[in-house]
Amino acid sequence: MQSLAQALTGVSGILVTPFDSDDRIAPERLAPIVDRAVGAGVHILVANGNTGEFYGLTTAEAEHMVHAAAEHVAGRVPLVAGVGRGLHDALALARASRKAGATALMVHQPPDPFVAPGGVVRYVARIAEEAQGLPLILYLRDDGIGLDAIRSLCAIPGVAGVKWACPTPLRLGEAIRQSDPSLVWVGGLAETWAPPFYAVGARGFTSGLINVWPEHSVAINRALEAGEYATAGRLIEIMSPFEALRAEERNGANVSVVKAALALLGRDCGPPRPPAAWPLTNAAQATLRARLAEWKLAAA
Known about the structure:
single chain; 300 residues; alpha/beta; eight-stranded parallel beta sheet
């Protein structure tokens, strides 16, 4: 298995959380998705990320999912476990993730409406203490906390990397320049944003596509790592309609499209929970079906 630092420069696959027909988590349905992702060469798998509907799960469900994901992954690739929400929920998830054998923790940025930049630093520092040596990956979706706070977050002992999920590559470049050069900065806005993030010093990217077509995500990463930007661009253009569908309804279709695609591929993981968009519009469903057929993943 690759080291965490090496793996972060590859594809970080954000796993869905499967549900059954009674809206209960159904972690056994994750097994074929994990097996295909690992077989395709996905470098890291992430449980309890946003594609995994982290904020739609109870803390107990999130704890269950990290244990289940660890069993499915079985040490074949690093497993990163998302933690977050209220401080004590985050600490409980850190303990559960450590017990499950996670390789590292991904700390979701607090969505609290009254977030102070210094408060985020204290929040992450408490989680780092609870992690007891597990590396931390910061998940930054709001760079409005400022570069001073970001620099302080990166200086917390145990922080090994940052997933940058803000559409601000120039600010990302500045944050990289101001931080410890040993940190790995990862593109956190999937394949389509990877090239501009690479241009300013990030490496690797997160992906929800890996649940559906992991081979394609790995091919994009391979091209970027080789400096073959034209090839990467062509590959991204092929899958960009998928990401455009996910961005519909104010990004409310993000998980919905992934789960609709899985259903069309015969790997039903149930619908996403509200407030996600569901069902897809007729137009979106038709477009999705056409793309899967075009990519030879499903029949027309």
